[in-house]
């Protein structure tokens, strides 16, 4: 029993580490990309610095990355993991493909959230003499914040799912535990506990996300 | 600040939104630009408030040409312009005070100076103590007051109002117009009001330009335009005027209609004429009778303008003589030609 607890505890810690690090890095990549997608859109779609060609290119790249099956992307990115973290197996190595796989998803979520900002409010901000950077930082992001929080919640939950898949190719964490002990060593108890922990994680994160986003809306 | 437009043009595809418009907006006054939807007034205000560049033509603020400014100068010029909108366009992520603080923040003012100026502005628009209110808790009129305070934060010379009262009920419209009137006088502002409501022009503006299909069809002092409208569009606007201002000095605001039939003649009297018995004098001199169908007196720019819709009954040449005599007495006569 004690061994089971240790196994699950360690795997949960690994999963959390993978999920939160890759959330952080995917935001680091996806946030600027999402903002760029939004502001370079044609004027008719609310772009504040319309760059149709750049917008089309970025949009295509995002679509291509999003249509890749995650397992394939992960294998393709092994060399990159080796360059960045020095290895292509284990928890730390998994963060690289997880972040890159989630980044285009994050970009679309950020883009959608920002596009919901009332164009009239953006017009007012520009009429008052805001620079593009001021419009982004002081208007677009704060106005879209409740939707952004919902988007980040969705990203974390998606990454919990991805990280479980990463277990299949030696990524560590709860997915890895479920496959190696639960499936390959015929330990249904380990399988069950791993799945329950994942369920609880998803539920807790959803509740936190909803609460934060709801509080923001209530203050408006 | 005086605003001059020279031969402005702006098209979207095949649509000539603004077509060869040249106008001079005098400083220190309230100037109305009225038109139906699609007349080009929104485009025109986007051009003169420097949100868009014209395809051709020039815009001057006093002796400074502004339609071709490079980006950094454009941004600093926009900071000297105030603008309010139909839908207020306030930031929902900020409370009332933080909304008013925005233009000061982006101009780099320090925190304590911002706080002082915001308190001053809240008082100016009659919202003292409401600074911490979230925007969604404010009424339409209060939201527009916050927007006005925000627009005036950086001491602009000019305030553009883009359909600023169109989303408000008549009573709130009146209070916002009264506030704008006061602010204009106290701060020596130039106010440019874009609207589709003739009531707004009548109650607040000193000058008016009527736009139709991207061109100016009429312009002048509000009093002159009301007393002697030239274009069909203007007459149409005047015909649909509904009651709005209800100050004591106004006797009857809307036209009172006794009958929907007849009424070939529309007579307009202005100023002191409204006090004279012009009709009964003419009735005595010629063999005609007036059958009045509708009428009323409106107060425009501090002067009365009377309107009567009537039939003139009598032999055709007597009617012609009566009309000529009316015109001699400075009554404006419009005759509806029977279809």
What does this entry look like structurally?
The complex is a heterodimer of chains A (220) and B (339). Chain A has a single domain, classed as MetI-like (MetI-like fold). In chain A, 82% of the residues lie in helices and 0% in strands. Chain A has helices at residues 2-39, 52-67, 70-76, 78-85, 91-115, 119-127, 132-166, 173-184, 188-218. The longest helix of chain A has 38 residues, at 2-39. The radius of gyration of chain A is 20 Å and the shape is elongated. Chain A starts with a helix and ends with a helix. Chain B has helices spanning 41-48, 71-78, 96-106, 111-124, 140-152, 170-187, 198-204, 222-227, 232-239, 278-285, 316-328, and strands at 3-12, 15-25, 30-35, 56-61, 64-65, 81-85, 158-162, 190-195, 207-212, 215-221, 256-257, 265-270, 289-300, 303-313, 332-335. In chain B, the strands form three sheets. Chain B has a six-stranded mixed sheet with strand order 6-7-8-3-9-10, sandwiched between helices. The longest helix of chain B has 18 residues, at 170-187. Chain B is elongated and about 80 Å long. The chains are: A mainly alpha (220), B alpha/beta (339). At the A-B interface, helix 6 and helix 7 of A face helix 2, strand 6 and helix 3 of B.
């Amino acid at each position: 029993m004690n061994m089971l607890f240790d196994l699950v505890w360690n795997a949960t810690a690994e999963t959390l580490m993978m999920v939160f690090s890759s959330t952080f890095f995917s935001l680091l990549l996806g946030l600027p990309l999402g903002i760029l997608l939004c502001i370079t859109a044609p004027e008719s779609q609310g772009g504040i610095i319309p760059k149709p060609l750049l917008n089309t290119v970025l949009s295509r790249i995002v679509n291509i990355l999003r249509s890749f099956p995650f397992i394939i992307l992960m294998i393709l990115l092994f060399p990159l993991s080796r360059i960045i973290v020095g290895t292509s197996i284990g928890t730390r190595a998994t963060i690289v493909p997880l972040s890159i796989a989630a980044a285009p998803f994050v970009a679309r979520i950020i883009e959608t959230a920002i596009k919901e900002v009332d164009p009239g409010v953006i017009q007012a901000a520009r009429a008052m003499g805001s620079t593009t950077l001021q419009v982004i930082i002081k208007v677009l992001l704060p106005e879209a914040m409740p939707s952004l929080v919902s988007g980040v919640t969705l990203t974390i939950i998606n990454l919990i799912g991805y990280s479980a898949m990463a277990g299949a190719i030696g990524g560590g964490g709860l997915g890895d535990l479920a496959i190696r002990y639960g499936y390959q060593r015929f330990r249904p108890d380990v399988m069950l506990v791993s799945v329950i922990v994942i369920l609880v994680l998803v539920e807790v994160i959803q509740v936190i996300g909803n609460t934060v986003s709801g509080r923001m809306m209530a203050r408006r | 600040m005086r605003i001059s437009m020279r031969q402005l043009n702006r098209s979207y595809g095949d649509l000539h939104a603004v077509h060869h418009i040249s106008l001079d907006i005098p400083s220190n006054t309230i100037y109305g630009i009225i038109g139906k939807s699609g007349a080009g007034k929104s485009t025109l205000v986007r051009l003169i408030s420097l949100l868009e560049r014209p395809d051709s033509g020039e815009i001057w603020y006093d002796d400074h040409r502004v339609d071709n400014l490079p980006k950094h100068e454009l941004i600093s010029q926009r900071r000297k312009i105030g603008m309010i909108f139909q839908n207020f366009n306030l930031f929902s992520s900020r409370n009332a005070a933080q909304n008013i603080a925005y233009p000061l923040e982006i101009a780099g003012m320090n925190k304590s100076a911002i706080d002082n100026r915001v308190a001053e502005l809240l008082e100016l628009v009659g919202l003292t103590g409401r600074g911490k209110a979230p925007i969604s808790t404010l009424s339409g009129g209060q939201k527009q007051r916050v927007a006005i305070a925000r627009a005036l934060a950086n001491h602009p010379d000019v305030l553009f109002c883009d359909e600023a009262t169109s989303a408000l009920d008549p009573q709130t419209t009146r209070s916002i117009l009264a506030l704008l009137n006061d602010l204009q006088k106290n701060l020596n502002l130039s106010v440019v009001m874009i609207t589709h409501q003739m009531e707004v022009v009548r109650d607040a503006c000193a000058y008016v330009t009527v736009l139709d299909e991207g061109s100016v069809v009429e312009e002048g002092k509000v009093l002159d335009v009301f007393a002697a409208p030239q274009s069909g569009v203007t007459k149409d606007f005047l015909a649909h005027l509904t009651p709005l201002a209800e100050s004591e000095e106004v006797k009857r605001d809307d036209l009172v209609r006794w009958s929907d039939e007849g009424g070939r003649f529309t007579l307009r009297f202005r100023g002191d004429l409204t006090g004279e018995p012009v009709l009964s004098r003419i009735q005595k001199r010629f063999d005609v009778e007036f059958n009045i169908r509708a009428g009323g007196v409106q107060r425009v720019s501090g002067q009365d303008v009377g309107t009567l819709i009537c039939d003139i009954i009598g032999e055709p040449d007597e009617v012609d003589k009566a009309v000529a005599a009316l015109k001699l007495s400075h009554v404006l006569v419009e005759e509806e030609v029977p279809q």
